[in-house]
Task: inverse folding
């Protein structure tokens, strides 16, 4: 009897450890081998990557090439997130032709259940609460929030966070920008939340909101292309831990560990920095509002 | 079926994502506050719809060839606004009208949301009124005219009171629809209950917050539905009592 019980206890302990290991939020251990053949993939032999459509600069570039992609085609390898994704894919052993992009809007990306992608990359900020639902990779970009306004409006000359309280602010739904407005700026007027970038930018142009909170690289794109008479009023430093974008995975997917290894290697080799210099070169300083 | 759902392989994940009571309690106060905007939109829109729809119904039932252009216009109006999806009218007006940048035109998203709902529901409700007006037997108007009332007096004192009383249940039915459609105003950026719950979902990827919004909507539509049932039952009782007398 005892002979049976002991192995049973060992097995039970191992199972418990495995379960506990799978549930830890940040430190997901890489599987014994990250070799391509050992990975469980949505589509055999291919790395399937999900992102939203339209694919906005500076995250994606290269213009419209294949359907259904609008504004930019993620499959071109151009734009920051596309370039990072292909660099990660290369480290994992996938050729460029072995990468498939699928359209996955934010709402579907975060919905419970099986994902249509192996990894999602869509400017999704890591938070501990979100990491209970999706697995996040390590940071591939440390991000600050920024505020865009129309040139010549009163808000455009504000120099402090406290000065923003009296204005009508807005942000895109699903971003941490909205939380930022509520928690850090705490404005007197209820901020607006928009379903997508287009609606948010339209509201700014229409003066339905005074200021739009977006991440800093997006702020540069908004003022350069979408709202030519727009101006970056300033950026905000993260409080506490630095806000960061992570790739997202189905919880418990061991691929996270492999991607984290790839990202760490890319940081060591300076690849990540080079990609950033190419695609986010225009993202230079903006005054920091305090 | 309950067993099949709660013992499915994905159930623990679904349970955590949709039925997390801690998350429910956390977001309930914020979503309830946002729900006040839905109530406000609904009440303001309803007041205008009741008046405009009646006007449209009366215009459409004007007799004679002289009023043909007015009849044609009101038919075209009802056809158009019943045909275009509500969400499209809200998006077009809410983002389009303020873009004209005409002085004095409000830019408030809630304002344009209310305007869109009034336009659409006026079309629906005018049809309800019209059905009511047509259900009043022509002899009623003939009798009123024979007593020396003018056409508009006959309409106001004899036809409309009967017509409106008959269509109260379908009117309330449309208002239940209107209550739910207030959630569509959220696409303009107004933070109503559904938008607030989307914000909460985006913060922690937990879908329980949608359940909070659903509860709030149900909490006001169910009493209205029961009230409608009660009105229908009362009306039937009265008419049957009248038939016996």
Result:
């Amino acid at each position: 009897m005892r002979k049976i019980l002991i192995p049973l206890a060992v097995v039970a302990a191992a199972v418990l450890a495995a379960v506990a290991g799978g549930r830890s939020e940040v430190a997901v251990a890489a599987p014994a081998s990250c070799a391509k053949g050992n990975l469980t993939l949505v589509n055999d032999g291919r790395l399937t990557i999900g992102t939203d459509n339209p694919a906005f600069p500076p995250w994606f570039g290269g213009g419209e090439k294949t359907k259904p992609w609008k504004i930019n085609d993620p499959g071109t390898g151009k734009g920051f997130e596309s370039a990072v994704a292909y660099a990660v894919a290369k480290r994992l052993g996938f050729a460029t032709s072995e990468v498939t992009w699928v359209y996955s809007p934010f709402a579907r990306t975060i919905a419970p259940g099986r994902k249509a992608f192996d990894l999602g990359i869509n400017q999704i900020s890591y938070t501990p609460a979100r990491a209970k639902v999706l697995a996040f990779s390590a940071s591939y970009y440390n991000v600050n929030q920024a505020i865009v306004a129309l040139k010549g409006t009163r808000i455009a000359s504000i120099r402090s966070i406290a000065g923003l309280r009296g204005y009508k602010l807005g942000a895109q739904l699903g971003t941490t920008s909205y939380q930022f407005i509520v928690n850090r700026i705490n404005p007197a007027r209820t901020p607006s939340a928009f379903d997508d970038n287009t609606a948010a930018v339209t509201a700014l142009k229409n003066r339905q909101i005074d200021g739009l909170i977006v991440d800093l690289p997006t702020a540069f794109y908004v003022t350069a292309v979408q709202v030519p008479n727009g101006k970056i009023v300033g950026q905000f430093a993260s409080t506490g831990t630095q806000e960061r974008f992570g790739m997202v995975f189905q919880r418990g997917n061991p691929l996270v560990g492999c991607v984290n290894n790839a990202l760490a290697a890319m940081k060591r080799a300076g690849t990540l920095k080079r990609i950033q210099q190419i695609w986010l070169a225009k993202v230079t300083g903006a005054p920091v509002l305090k | 079926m309950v067993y099949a759902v709660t013992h499915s392989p994905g159930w623990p994940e679904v349970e955590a994502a949709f039925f997390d009571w801690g998350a429910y309690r956390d977001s309930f106060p914020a979503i309830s506050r946002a729900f006040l905007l839905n109530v406000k939109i609904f009440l303001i829109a309803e007041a205008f719809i009741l008046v405009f729809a009646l006007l449209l119904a009366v215009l459409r039932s004007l007799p004679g060839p002289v009023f043909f252009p007015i009849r044609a216009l009101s038919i075209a109006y009802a056809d158009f606004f019943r045909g275009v999806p509500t969400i499209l009218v809200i998006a077009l007006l809410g983002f389009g009208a303020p873009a004209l940048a005409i002085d004095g035109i409000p830019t408030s998203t809630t304002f344009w949301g209310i305007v869109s709902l009034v336009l659409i529901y006026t079309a629906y409700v005018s049809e309800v009124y019209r059905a009511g007006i047509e259900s009043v037997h022509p002899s009623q108007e003939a009798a009123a005219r024979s007593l020396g009332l003018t056409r508009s007096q006959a309409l106001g004192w004899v036809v409309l009171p009967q017509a409106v009383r008959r269509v109260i249940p379908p009117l309330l039915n449309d208002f239940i629809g209107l209550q739910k459609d207030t959630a569509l105003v959220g696409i303009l950026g107004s933070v109503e209950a559904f938008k607030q719950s989307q914000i909460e979902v985006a913060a922690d990827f937990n879908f329980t917050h949608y359940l909070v919004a659903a509860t709030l909507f149900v909490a006001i539509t169910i009493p209205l539905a029961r009230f409608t049932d009660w009105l229908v039952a009362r009306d039937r009782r009265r008419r049957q009592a009248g038939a016996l007398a």
Notes: The mean pLDDT of chain B is 90. Residues 2-244 of chain B form a domain with the MetI-like fold fold (CATH 1.10.3720.10). The first helix of chain B runs from residue 2 to 6.
